[in-house]
User: Fold this.
Amino acid sequence: MNAPVSATLARLRQTFESGKTRPIEWRLQQLSEIDRMLRDHESDFAEALKADLGKCRFEADLTETSFVQAEAKYARKHLEDWMRPQRVRTPLMAQPGKSYIQPEPKGVVLIIAPWNYPMSMVMAPLVGAVAAGNCAIMKPSEITSHTSAALARILPRYLDNEAFAVVEGGIPETTELLEQPFDHILYTGNERVARVVMAAAAKHLTPVTLELGGKSPCLIDKSADIEVAASRIAWGKFINAGQTCVAPDHVLVHREVATKFIETLSAKIREFYGDDPAQSPDYCRIASERHTERFVKLLEGQKIHTGGRVDVAMRYVEPTIVLDPAPDSALMQEEIFGPVLPVITVDEMHHAIKFVADRPKPLALYLFSKSETLEDVVLSKLSAGSVCINDAVLFMVSPELPFGGVGNSGMGRYTGWYGFETFSHMKPVMKRSFRFDAPMRYPPYTDKKARLLKMVR
Ligand code: NAD
Assistant:
């Protein structure tokens, strides 16, 4: 059972104010503890992820455990550099003097996570918060209850209990947390709840990072290597049974290669998961029966090329290819967030570009093409949280690239340096010398002083 939220927050705030979280040694040690926790309890987390999402060991490792460990390792390697004040130029008018940006921790932060990557969406943001020297409360998703319970049980045995706490629960518990004054909130989840989070944060003027979703399009040009494109798209779409915020939501393919792409993709599904993916140990389940039922409705009346089987009791949705759904169908209006891939055929790539440009900015945008001209057009005309050319989802492995949305797909970013920056206040400092005090800025103001000031700015 959770301790009262206000008491937990008071404990963490006291720790933060004591200065305990500021030294690099403490931060490095906490980052090491994250790594040690994941190594010691890899099996516990894998079992929890299996129970929640039918996640196989390989995907649990790749997309959850290793992902967080790589983040923690990268932060440990760079932390000294990140914490160092960054010198910047000082204008002539402020000479003699020096200027720098000194990162400082924000304080006590709140991390609210969703169910689709229930461990890494708690822990990867936490790496940034720890590196930046904050205390944090983590609220895992109640929908993936096994992983939530595992985090609540295991994490306090490794991380400093005076600085970190896991609060379990659903809407009432999150609402209670959101009433408290945090110094930053990082929320990952859907747009509707993001508005609730932002409204609550506004009461305390708390800054927010919103990691949301949306319909990430995938454009396939006739110049693309269709065999490789089909493999990469099948992988990016069907890992975690499509419950990936950056999974390709739908494909817009050039008519000249459409049939070849659809047939190759269908063959890849069989190659990856066998003739009956329900029997594959590598294929995940949907998070709940309620979430599975959605797919029955989404597929109603659609032209199904491959798959299409839904078993609500087993939380199973077969990897499915749908051909040319109507743009006003639910399938093309909502984020699919499951293993159903609509493939829309276009006569020209500029039709695909217009299709994407007319819709809200996605979290990820994929282009498969050998044409650099098309690449330039896509990059200059379309906005997205991230763009990945000739692959799907893989950009997530780079700690050098920030991760976050734009417009409806979110605001703010994290991973690597960007996580450190998100959870830091980048405090500008200017230090002047007493040595020389130019009188030109002081009244009485004259035209000569104005002219001089213009010259030294
Ligand atoms: P969810 O239902 O688990 O909700 C997310 C969190 O919000 C949970 O911790 C939950 O307890 C809390 N919550 C739910 N309703 C609430 C309310 N009314 N008030 C306060 N808190 C509430 O997960 P979800 O939102 O279904 O997650 C799926 C969405 O997340 C998709 O849109 C997906 O694209 C997006 N997502 C984005 C990223 C990213 O990094 N950008 C990563 C993963 C998922």
Notes: The longest strand covers residues 97-105. The first helix runs from residue 5 to 18. The radius of gyration is 25 Å. Residues 108 and 135 are 5 Å apart (CA to CA).
